[in-house]
């Protein structure tokens, strides 16, 4: 239940306690804007109350506590911070070959997390925030089993300030690029995957025997097999990249066989098997801009996300542009252009990824949630809209970037001699 659903008397009592507590924490009240909680209908001339990095209340005509910092959002749009489910921001220098911190050598690295390669001062982080993106899910790169993804908020001077968790999901690649892991065929890759999964479960059952050397050789080092166990137990999502129809079907077979908590990634031909994906209850991460056929997805079409959503699939939108994380909202806008409802598109970059990855404190404007909030000049899914103020964990963050600095430096050039 959100604060806007509570009786006014209850709200007033809560605010009375809040005012007493303001001496120990910052209180911010955003008033007058059109609030889009995502979890419920929009609120005209709404109020968002923030204290100590959390949302305390959201509603219309709420009283403003004494001493609170008031932010007038009249005529503006207010949404949760956007969540990018495929971000590279902070993991090296965007688009420069050899400068990524997102991977290690080898095909089987489930114990690897790129978290300690994250640079909180990278220029890409500030750029990402200008697009209203406050949270990123960053996974390692690799051709088969590259490791675990992490989740960060794009604020703070150190990894410890930004990190939400370094184990938000396990990654598995079943696309065309993983055939090498199976000796050059998809069937070989599936066989190897099953063997790894079975060995991990066998290792768990017979760990004492393994340590005594009384067990047959396994298909991967014990540390790597042990890292797979949370995903095999269903306590951590497994993101499986699969673009062709046959690969998506293979991923669904693994999901049923090992009872995985799967999130499909890519799904270029997902529209062909939308009903099967929906029946399996599997969310998907996709880019609405993928419309050029390739050998890893001959059936590419711009309304893929729309067709998946109509079938009942939970759709998560993620732009795959290196260094272009700030353009996430335009990916959602393109989904709307190709038939997806505006509400579904906004949910696909806020609440849908939060729910799929188990980030229960994120993705919507509700009491108790982390105060990642964006004030927009207009529609965030339109080029005409822009992020004017961004709050991460209740603190306003700078939208100044390296681009801003270069603009200011070279706005006025010296006269020619």
Spell out the key features of this protein:
about 425 residues, alpha/beta, 2 domains, eight-stranded mixed β-sheet, 16 strands, about 20% strand, globular
- At CATH's second level, what is the architecture of the largest domain? Alpha-Beta Barrel
Order of helices and strands: HEEEEEEHEEHEHHHEHEHEHEHHHEEEH
Quote the average pLDDT.
90
What form results from the Cα inertia axes?
globular
The main β sheet shows up as: 8 strands, mixed
Q: What class do helices, strands and sheet pairing give? A: alpha/beta
Total helices: the number is 13
Describe this entry's structure for a reader.
By secondary structure, the chain is an alpha/beta fold. The protein has 2 domains: 1-80 and 363-399, Urease, subunit C, domain 1 (Roll), CATH 2.30.40.10; 82-360, Alpha-Beta Barrel (TIM Barrel), CATH 3.20.20. 29% of the residues lie in helices and 21% in strands. The protein is built from 13 helices and 16 strands. It has helices at 8-21, 123-129, 159-162, 186-205, 207-211, 222-232, 245-258, 274-280, 304-310, 328-337, 342-347, 351-356, 402-410, and strands spanning 27-35, 43-51, 54-60, 69-72, 77-80, 82-84, 133-138, 147-153, 163-173, 238-242, 262-266, 284-286, 315-317, 373-376, 387-392, 395-397. Strands 1, 2, 3, 4, 5, 14, 15 and 16 form an 8-stranded mixed sheet that branches. An 8-stranded mixed sheet has the order 6-7-8-9-10-11-12-13. The longest helix is centred in the middle third of the chain and has 20 residues, at 186-205.
């Amino acid at each position: 239940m959100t604060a806007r659903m509570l009786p006014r008397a209850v709200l007033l009592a809560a605010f009375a306690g809040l005012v007493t507590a303001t001496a120990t924490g910052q209180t911010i009240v955003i008033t007058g804007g059109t609030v889009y909680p995502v979890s419920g209908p929009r609120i005209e001339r709404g109020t968002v109350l923030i204290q100590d990095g959390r949302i305390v209340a959201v509603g219309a005509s709420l009283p403003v506590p004494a001493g609170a910092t008031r932010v007038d959002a009249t005529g503006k749009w207010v949404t949760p911070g956007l969540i990018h489910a495929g971000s590279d921001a902070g993991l090296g220098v965007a688009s420069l070959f050899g400068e990524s911190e997102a991977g290690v050598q080898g095909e089987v690295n489930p114990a690897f997390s790129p978290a300690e390669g994250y640079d909180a001062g990278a220029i890409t982080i500030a750029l990402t925030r200008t697009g209203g993106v406050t949270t990123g899910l960053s996974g390692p790169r690799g051709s088969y089993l590259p490791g675990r993804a992490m989740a960060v908020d794009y604020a703070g001077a150190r990894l410890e300030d930004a990190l939400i968790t370094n184990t938000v999901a396990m990654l598995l690649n079943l696309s065309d690029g993983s055939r090498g892991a199976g000796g050059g065929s998809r069937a070989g890759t599936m066989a190897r995957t099953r063997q790894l999964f079975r060995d991990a479960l066998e290792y768990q059952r017979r760990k004492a025997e393994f340590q005594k050397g009384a067990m047959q050789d396994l298909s991967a080092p014990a540390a790597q097999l042990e890292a797979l166990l949370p995903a095999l137990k269903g306590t951590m999502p497994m993101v499986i990249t699969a673009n062709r129809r046959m690969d998506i079907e293979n991923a669904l077979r693994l999901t049923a066989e090992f009872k995985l908590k799967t999130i499909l990634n890519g799904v270029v031909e997902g529209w062909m098997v939308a009903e099967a994906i929906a029946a399996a209850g599997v969310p998907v991460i996709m880019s609405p801009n993928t419309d050029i056929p390739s050998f890893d997805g001959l059936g590419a079409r711009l309304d893929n996300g729309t067709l998946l959503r109509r079938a009942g699939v939970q759709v998560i939108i993620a732009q795959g542009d290196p260094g272009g994380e700030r353009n996430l909202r335009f990916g959602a806008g393109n989904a709307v252009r190709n038939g997806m409802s505006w509400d579904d598109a906004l949910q696909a970059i806020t609440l849908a990824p939060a729910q799929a990855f188990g980030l229960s404190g994120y993705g919507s404007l509700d009491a108790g949630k982390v105060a990642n909030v964006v004030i927009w000049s207009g529609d965030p899914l339109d080029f005409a809209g822009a992020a004017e103020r961004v709050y991460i964990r209740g603190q306003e963050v700078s939208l100044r970037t390296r681009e801003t600095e270069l603009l200011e430096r070279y706005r006025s050039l010296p006269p020619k001699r």
